[in-house]
């Protein structure tokens, strides 16, 4: 595993203004072995044309011509991500990767041989966010600690409610190897593991 591959899935629905920034943070990473899947949910704000105009072979545009509920749009991108192999994460179209994120993640998974790598999210409130007190708010954990966890021990503790679900990995704040996601398919009874809970709101 000299150069782990990463796939970043960005579901989006008519939010080109923030998607531009999300894509910029991906394409400016100092690591070459990654791709970005833009799951465009029937966008009519120029999103598809913008993504095509970038002409970047690392970006895969996956549009649909009918508006899907958020959960369906997120889930339909999973088979595309699994087909690429490597590690998968989901990134909000108003979020971004911090500089050097992929290079650091590659270093950790090479050294530890882990199938899942989770992190505490860095949070930033856009200037136009609805809650005024969150506008231009930035927070980031400053600890430089890597904790190696046993998945079986953690799941046992979660089953006993001795740890919260938010203390475990999720596709919105983790890189999860495709082999793990593929193994989850029979347990979910679906064509692919859900990336997020179902919602009727388009995204």
UniProtKB/TrEMBL annotation:
Residue ranges crossing the lipid bilayer per the database entry: none
InterPro entries: Glyco_trans_2-like, Glycosyltransf_2, Nucleotide-diphossugar_trans
Keywords linked to the UniProt accession: Transferase
Pfam families linked to this entry: Glycos_transf_2 (PF00535)
Domain of life: Bacteria
Ranges where the Glycosyltransferase 2-like domain occurs: 7-115
Molecular function, one GO term: transferase activity
Designated name of the protein: Glycosyltransferase
Organism, scientific name: Ramlibacter montanisoli
């Amino acid at each position: 595993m000299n150069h782990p591959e990463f796939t970043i899935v960005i579901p989006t629905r008519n939010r080109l203004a923030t998607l531009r920034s999300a894509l910029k943070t991906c394409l400016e990473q100092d690591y070459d072995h990654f791709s970005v899947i833009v799951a465009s949910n029937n966008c009519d704000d120029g999103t598809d044309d913008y993504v095509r105009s970038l002409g970047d072979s690392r970006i895969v545009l996956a549009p649909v011509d009918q508006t899907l509920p958020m959960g369906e749009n997120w889930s339909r991108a999973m088979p595309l991500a699994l087909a690429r192999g490597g590690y998968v994460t989901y990134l909000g179209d108003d979020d971004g990767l911090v500089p050097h994120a992929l290079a650091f993640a590659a270093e950790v998974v090479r050294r530890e041989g882990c199938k899942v790598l989770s992190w505490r999210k860095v949070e930033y409130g856009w200037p136009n966010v609805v809650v005024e007190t969150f506008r231009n708010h930035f927070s980031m954990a400053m600890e430089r600690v890597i904790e190696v966890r046993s998945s079986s021990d953690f799941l046992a503790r979660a089953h006993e409610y001795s740890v919260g679900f938010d203390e475990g990995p999720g596709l919105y704040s983790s890189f999860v190897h495709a082999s793990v996601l593929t193994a989850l398919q029979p347990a979910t009874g679906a064509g692919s593991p859900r990336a997020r809970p179902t919602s009727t709101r388009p995204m």
